[in-house]
UniProtKB/TrEMBL annotation:
With S5 and S12 plays an important role in translational accuracy. One of the primary rRNA binding proteins, it binds directly to 16S rRNA where it nucleates assembly of the body of the 30S subunit. Keywords: Ribonucleoprotein, Ribosomal protein, RNA-binding, rRNA-binding. GO terms for cellular component: small ribosomal subunit. This is Small ribosomal subunit protein uS4. Residues 3-91 form the Small ribosomal subunit protein uS4 N-terminal domain. It comes from the Bacteria. The keyword rRNA-binding applies. One of its GO terms (biological process) is ribosomal small subunit biogenesis. It comes from Prevotella brunnea. Belongs to the universal ribosomal protein uS4 family. Pfam families: Ribosomal_S4, S4.
Amino acid sequence: MARYIGPKSRIARRFGEPIFGADKVLAKRNYPPGQHGNNRRRKVSEYGAQLAEKQKAKYTYGVLERQFRNMFERAAKASGITGEILLQNLESRLDNVVYRLGIAPTRAAARQLVGHKHIIVNGKVVNIPSYSVQPGDIVGVREKAKSLEVIEAALAGFNHSKYPWIEWDENTKSGKFLHKPDRADIPENIKEQLIVELYSKQ
């Protein structure tokens, strides 16, 4: 399974945002990496801004280029606002839903839990991180994985009410995907219209 495994703090510093989660390095050095990072005052072109936004979205959700382009093309064919549909589809990925449910502390950790067959959807094991969760689906932890330390630590004190499109059941350690989120409810700082403009030129 291809994924980005390079230095995460360097990427977060490039965008000036903790896109992989809390980052001590970013807190100390909130400027781009490199020898001249702290003194760089370069004007970004329109294309550069659009490209940076696409890269930010890809790194945030852990999606590589071909997969991201395929998701965009599907969103472009659907009826509605393309950028919003793209983000909704990214939010519907199984690894992201596991992360939003608080079962894992990061999307990378969620991807690992899915790949190691610790996650079930509607009672069946699904080990494909890109699996598209549909409204009404129940996503939970496999019975023998409920005592895993990483899952217990992630769930401890997690606020399940902050995402209105999912509903958590503490007794079964599972959550119901109620509906695709509205754009206003998605907390990621992504300007999806710039991504749409970038792909429309290609």
